[in-house]
Amino acid sequence: MKPIVAIVGRPNVGKSTLFNKLVGDRVAIVDDQPGVTRDRLYRETEWCGTEFVLVDTGGLEPRNNDFMMSKIKQQAEVAMNEADVIMFIVDAKAGVTALDEEVAYILRKKNKPVILCVNKVDDFLAQQDDLYDFWSLGFEHLMPISAEHKSNLGDMLDVITENINKLELQEEEEGLKLAIIGRPNAGKSSLVNRLSGEERAIVSSMAGTTRDAIDTSIEFDDNKYILIDTAGIRRKSKVEESLEYYSVLRAIKTIKRADVCLLMLDGQEGITEQDKRIAGIAYEERKPIIVVVNKWDAVEKETMTMKHMTDELYEELPFLSYAPIEFVSALTGQRTLRLLEHADLVYGEYTKRISTGLLNGVIKEATIMNAPPTRKGRLVKINYATQVSSAPPKFVVFCNYPELVHFSYLRYLENRLRESFGFEGCPIDIMTQTKNR
Ligand SMILES: Nc1nc2c(ncn2[C@@H]2O[C@H](COP(=O)(O)OP(=O)(O)OP(=O)(O)O)[C@@H](O)[C@H]2O)c(=O)[nH]1
Ligand SMILES: Nc1nc2c(ncn2[C@@H]2O[C@H](COP(=O)(O)OP(=O)(O)OP(=O)(O)O)[C@@H](O)[C@H]2O)c(=O)[nH]1
Q: Which positions fall inside the EngA-type G domain (predicted)?
């Protein structure tokens, strides 16, 4: 689990500029699958060997001052709860504003490292005197920077990574980590309660009091699971956008820690934009996913309801065509235990390795059935393939002209691999390379 560094501050201080300068071109786009909702809210980055996840708190629409004030305060609260290190951005040209003071007040309440970044210091000597006021905000680390001119960013990053390295890494408990992700009210906590209330379950601990996410460790017949819930999102904030931001940030954290993601939908409501967004994060993080349609007890069923809903879900989530769908009721316990078995199975798929011999048999047959298309008069010849890693399963296909192998052909190979080897619930990565590289 990489540490999270959140960028906080009022509008127009230069948060986005800074975010973009810091993540640079390191933006990892997995592929151009349609339907994946992407946002530039967070990126993984690295400084001198220390990796972290940088989170931008996103643009706020300045409607009126009161509204703005409450939104910014909420953002600061979220950052305070979720992030490991906070970058609090202020504007040297504007000086200390009332809003800055409000944010500072929130950020000082807890004992997390806050780096006060005084931005727009384009000319240090000329602006030196403007900096003094900012000490009044009460933070130990004050860094004058210019996001636009990239000045002093190295020193700032040094301070950030120093603080990251001081963090005590939490010991993770043993067991298969299942992240239960989804919109507020989908029934995530109900599922956790249901599973931990089962007669056969040995519930050994409830941890996570310092953070809002709650881990429940349960054991069934010697199999251990850690259920990572993201409860309590809804009640804290009433404003739509910040709720969105809040749950996304939560989801990111939870997903990154997870071995398997259970994407929970409310069967009565069907799929929403927010569900798709959360699904998109799990997809981009290359985690195994099981789609869980909850509240099945309350869904009015006609003939083929399950089939229709399945079709509809795959249509709405085309990038998750590999994810199995389970219809459950956290309320009655219908099929909830099966979720655990299913998660075990999917994780087994995620971590398995295919021998090079078997793999090449399948690839060879696939290329005979459907040869790579000739492009620009050149013939693509696939030499051989190998699985280079698992979790997620990653394959390299060696051939003479990797750049000519089209995405759709890789998709074809992926489907053949799935037909032969399963990989249920798992994303698969296939890369092409020339033989002598
Ligand atoms: N002079 C100067 N201007 C800067 C610097 N960094 C950012 N700006 C400018 O400040 C303005 C606001 O920058 P943004 O990055 O959009 O600010 P933001 O905090 O993300 O704003 P919101 O998206 O509204 O929250 C832009 O016009 C930037 O060009 C800097 O280091 N020096
Ligand atoms: N009928 C029915 N209701 C359910 C089921 N599961 C949960 N509910 C109800 O749905 C509501 C929300 O359930 P929660 O478990 O609090 O949902 P959550 O996803 O944890 O919500 P947040 O904590 O806001 O993220 C509650 O009123 C539950 O009783 C189910 O399987 N069937």
A: 3-168, 176-351
- Counting from 1 in the atom list of ligand 2, the atom nearest the Cα of 334 is 31
Alpha carbon of 80 to ligand 1 centroid (Å): 23
Ligand 2 environment, Cβ below 6 A: 184-190, 231-234, 294-295, 297-298, 329-331
Residue entry with tokens 């799935």: 418
Burial class (CB in 10 A: 0-12, 13-18, 19+), 197: exposed
Q: What is the per-residue pLDDT for 243?
A: 53
Token pair in block for residue 426: 């798992």
- Burial level of 245, CB count in 10 A (0-12/13-18/19+)? buried
| pLDDT of 138 | 83
Q: Whose CA is nearest to atom 23 of ligand 1?
A: 59
| pLDDT averages per 10-residue partition of the chain, 437 residues | 85 86 58 46 83 73 65 74 89 92 84 93 88 87 93 94 79 83 87 84 53 73 86 43 61 86 94 88 93 95 91 95 96 95 96 93 94 84 89 91 89 96 96 76
Q: Which ligand is nearest to the CA of 72?
A: 1
Atom of ligand 1 nearest to the CA of 57: 25
Q: What is the position in ligand 2's atom list of the atom closest to the CA of 192? A: 15
- ipTM for the whole complex: 0.63
Binding site for GTP, residues? Answer: 9-16, 56-60, 119-122, 182-189, 229-233, 294-297
Ligand 2 atom at minimum distance from 231 CA: 23
CA dist 417 and 183 (Å) reads: 33
- Bridge partners of 37, per DSSP, are none
Ligand nearest to C-alpha 213: 2
Residue 75 has phi, psi (to 5 degrees) of -60, -40
Residue type, 431: M
pLDDT at 292: 97
404-408 CB contacts, 8 Å cutoff, 24+ apart = 404/372, 404/375, 404/376, 404/378, 404/380, 405/372, 405/380, 405/432, 406/373, 406/375, 407/31, 407/32
Residue 235: per-residue pLDDT: 39
The predicted pLDDT at position 211 comes to 42
| Closest ligand to the CA of 183 | 2
Q: What is the pTM of this model?
A: 0.68
Paired strand residues for 398:
384, 433
By C-alpha distance, which of 9, 239, 11 is closest to 102?
9
